[in-house]
Amino acid sequence: MEGLYDDGKEDGGGDDISASGPALIEPYDDGAIINGMLSKNSFADEGQQTENETVVRETAEDQEVDTADQFEEVGIADNGDFLDVDLKKPNQMAISSFSLLTTFFTITVVHFFIHAHSATHWQDVQVLKQLKSTITPSSIPPGSCIDSWDFTLDPCDNLFSDKFTCGFRCDAVSNSSTSQVTELALDSAGYSGSLSAVDWALPYLQNLDFSNNFFTGPIPVSFSRLTRLNRLALSHNSLTGSVPASLGSLASLEEMYLDNNMLTGQIPLSLNGLMNLKRLEIQGNKLNGDFPDLSRLGSLNFLDASDNAISGELPATLPPSLIELTARNNQIEGNIPATMANLAFLQVMDLSHNKLSGSVPAGLFTHPSLEQLTLSYNRFGLVQVPGNSGLTSQLISVDLSNNEIRGFLPGFMGLMPRLSALSLENNKFSGFIPTQYVLKVLESGTGQGVAQFERLLLGGNYLFGPIPGRFLELKEGSVRVRLGDNCLYRCPVRLFFCEGGVQKSLMECRAFGPMIP
Question: Composition bias, kind Basic and acidic residues: at what positions (predicted)?
């Protein structure tokens, strides 16, 4: 802006400067600069004076100039063109003030548009209000997320302020002037109440986490409206009723945590519709019925159905992508299907504390990726020997304790290269302790990657004969070996590796089988 004033003179009228915001500057025939920036006609606002007027008045008060003089003094020709004139100090101060006003106006406009864009969608606000109102007031502790929610203000606009400290997240939605709630993650404050009273109309919600609280009642069927949900976490509450079949319609769901509640009924087959599901945790409930066929869950990596009342046999087919299968402490019966060996990515299998019987399949000892096998507290009677003696096994830990397995200790397990923890306690094994076991306890092996036994638990069987002489070389704390409660000769409990109980009486040992001397 050049040539607004010359020699500190002011156009007649002595009125205040008024600014209305950033805009293009254009000349009018009467000498005004349009859009409310600066003009001889814009110096009037109920007699108020600005700093610009004060500066100008210091050099020229009560002077009247005609229209031609005004054009000359402000650097505007009669034809409306700007003239090249030098700016004096008063003009510079006026321009500086004008710049401040322009900047302020720009910031205000930007703030307005940001505010308008981030305002929470009205439907999302209603859901948040319903959620707060359904929570038992006495269960809302001071300083908690819910306690801070103050709906006299807009939620998304005031997120992380003292009015909405936490509990949700908002994101802008394309082609919309509003923000939508994309995450509801409450703190573990002990909230209680029923979730069914809420109308779950949150179309952009991706994560819902109410874990570690005391919510009661059924899982809302209306959760099926959360079509963009990726993660549903309701762990450690007091939810009752069955798992809604409608959850199977959440096609985007990748993780579902319903564990440690009081859910009953069967696991619905409709869950096979969750084609993107990677993790399913339903342990710690009261679910019953047969173990469902979930083989169509082609993305499922982790399945935990432990601590329920699931019965029946294991399905012949399971999701081929499984990495971890855990279903301990149920009432599952029958044999382990041989097809388990076809789960190429399986690393962990825990089916302990069930009613499984028959043989432990040899395929589990040659599996290409299985590292942890826990089948304790079942009714297995035999261990199948793999054709390659387990030399290609990837198993690190094997627990077959507390079954009904008879015969000699499986010597091939002493040859498994990565095995470092073996528990065969409380079975009906008999015979001598294999030399392979002794060597694996004492030596780390001659080949690269061959592991040493760090834990060897053989107590509670009918093993007989003398203790291996080289065991006397072991130092307490170097390895954990338990040989108590067998039929071993000279294995007093004072020796640390004979812990676990005194040896059985000779009468009990001979009553078990004629092979025991």
Answer: 1-12
Same domain, yes or no: 423 and 468:
yes
CB atoms within 10 A of CB 238: 13
Q: Is residue 163 part of a domain?
A: yes
Q: Looking up tokens 């948040």, which residue turns up?
A: 128
Task: List residues bridging with 231 in a β-sheet.
Answer: 207, 255
Which residue in this structure is represented by tokens 């290269």?
417
Please say whether the beta carbons of 489 and 517 come within 8 A. no
The predicted structure's pLDDT at residue 388: 86
Q: Are 154 and 206 in contact (CB under 8 A)?
A: no
Tokens at 373, concatenated: 């096998």
- 364 & 457 share domain: yes
**Residue 464 sits in a domain of what CATH number?**
3.80.10.10
Give per-residue pLDDT as tens, 333-373. Answer: 999 998 998 999 999 999 999 999 999 999 999 999 999 99
Rounded to whole angstroms, how far apart are CA atoms 284 and 262?
8
- Is the pLDDT confidence value at 114 over 70? no
Answer yes or no: do 93 and 129 share one domain: no
Question: Which of helix, strand or coil describes residue 290?
Answer: strand
The Cα 410–Cα 388 span in angstroms is 13
Do residues 354 and 457 both lie within one domain?
yes
DSSP 233: E
CB 228 within 8 A of CB 206: yes
User: Both 114 and 132 in a single domain?
Assistant: no
Distance CA 434, CA 344 (A): 31
80 and 145 housed in the same domain: no
